[in-house]
Amino acid sequence: MNKKSLTVTSFALFSLFFGAGNLILPPQLGFKSGELWWLVTLGFCLSAVVIPLLGILAHARLQGTMFDFAKKVSPVFSWVYCYIVYAIAIALPSPRTASVTHEMAIQPLWDSPAWMTSVLYFVLVYIFVVNRSKVLDLVGKLLTPGILIILLFIFVIATFSFDFNFTAHSLDHPFSLGILEGYQTFDAIGAVVVGAVIIISINLKNKEASFESKKSLIRKAGFLAGLGLFLVYAGLIFTGAVFGDSFDPSISRTALLSGISLQTLGNTAHLFLSLLVSLACFTTAVGIVTGTSDFIRGQFNDSVLAYRVTAIIGCVLGVLMGQLNVDYIIAVALPALMLIYPITIVLIVLNVVPEKLASPKVFRWVVGTTIVFSIPDFLGSLGFGLATNLSPEWVPLTHYQLGWVLPALVVFVASNLFQKKTG
């Protein structure tokens, strides 16, 4: 694998990760966190950079499909997990990209209805998806450089043109809030979905490449993409903090980003922002629909018809859901994320640690524990407030909606010690 392949793959990974949530979530975090923007950045990047990077490293080791991530728990569980994740992906984050594009890139320039934006948007998505073998080149060579150049303009102008008079923060738990807000990027889920897209794309372009050379390429590309995501997120959060006293505290995510771009880029802000939003959102939608279509095709003996039908269904769902308000889609997504995200994080970690520490029994015990201790947070996100107070005294981090973390860690250690002792 040469440097050109590494560059294109790194850009493609970055672009497939960097979508609607990645663009609109960080500025508001910085805006609310003020002088503690750096602490929020650490939390956000833990769930939106470190965990997704581990997911790519797991893909480099497995070089299979998302089914391989959970098959050690049981084949049935893996099938159920895969279908739930792909259903969530095409029903929420993919349509959200069209909704964000309309609110920030189309509506300010043209007074056109949301349905028209969604239809045109997903027609283009479908064209990219059916040209499956060209996804890596199109995304890596053409779209990502445009995203990075426009972001660089915003960061540089904000850094050198405005005073660093950070406001007092208004957050109770900035670090844990950063972690939970990172859930809304869907990047951990994206890692298991688009990671498979990258692997299939590499296999299509380099059929003769060895397992180890592909493993090295995916790992290096993952690290470079992760570094790029960290710098972009930190820059967006910092930029939001710089403008902490420039907007109404109740400003929406999309309006804040529009306001920041207006103050940094001037009268041409809407043009630049339109390009940025359209590019960032579009690449993510392409990755999600392609990944879902790849998975379904694999279930039907590599049927091209199954691939195209799935792509059509994904795009139709995108048109229907893409007409909803961005904040509404984010609110709807929260309950699903509070349950599926902890499971995804645990599966990623278990697929990265040495195999001797992650036997099928360890997988089953740790994943089962994670599901049990995620239920209170899931019920709480649905509005059942009492569910979040089931065991706050004896389960650490429950107040931070991370009550599953330490039980999963304890069970992981205990199950390995038990197996070592009995084995």
TrEMBL record:
Q: Which Pfam families match?
A: Branch_AA_trans
- GO MF term list: L-isoleucine transmembrane transporter activity; L-leucine transmembrane transporter activity; L-valine transmembrane transporter activity
Q: Which residues does UniProt assign to the signal peptide?
A: none
* Keyword Transmembrane included in the entry's annotation: yes
Q: What GO CC terms are in its UniProt record?
A: plasma membrane
The UniProt transmembrane annotation reads 36-60, 72-92, 112-130, 142-162, 182-202, 223-243, 271-292, 304-322, 328-353, 365-387, 399-418
Judging by the UniProt lineage, the source's domain of life is: Bacteria
Q: Kindly state which keywords UniProt assigns to this record, in alphabetical order.
A: Amino-acid transport, Cell membrane, Membrane, Transmembrane, Transmembrane helix, Transport
Q: What's an example GO BP annotation here? A: isoleucine transport
Its annotated compartments are: Cell membrane
Topology in the lipid bilayer is annotated as: Multi-pass membrane protein
| Stated family | Belongs to the branched chain amino acid transporter family.
The name this protein goes by in its record = Branched-chain amino acid transport system II carrier protein
* Gene that encodes it: brnQ
